[in-house]
Write a structure and sequence with these properties.
Number of strands: 5
Distance between the termini: 45 Å
Shape: globular
CATH class: Alpha Beta
Oligomer: single chain
Number of helices: 4
CATH superfamily: Gcn5-related N-acetyltransferase (GNAT)
Number of domains: 1
Largest sheet: 5 strands, mixed
CATH topology: Aminopeptidase
Length: 150
Amino acid sequence: MTKIIKATSNHLEATVLLFDAYRVWYRLESDLSGSRDFLKERIDRKESEIFLAIDPDTNEAVGFTQLYPYFSSTRMSRVWLLNDLFVRESHRGKGISVLLIEAAKKLARETGALGINLETEKSNEIGNTLYPRAGFKLYEKENFYFWLAN
């Protein structure tokens, strides 16, 4: 069975390969060096939690999720942002995404968080099917705004 582990600096290179593939899946240019720098900084500064899915046959990392903490002032509580979730195409359909989400839920419970927030593209058919099955509720009435600094 696929094993889920918390990534540390010892898992940086495996995480970089998955993270870069994830970015390419979102139609961005491959950037292994930038991915390495970005992830190393998150891990070293303890600014995110990253979980890796490890294939039991090859001991290879085949999927990951990355969560960032933030806080709700009105609810006076921590919330986790599930910002990244990716499973290599060769390993999709095996329940690995569900295992990664379960690790995220466990993190939320262990840290006393209010819950987990996530966002995905409307065109992400896989995610838009997966998240409701995993217990996430779509809030269609909310407005989402973003200010881009550049």
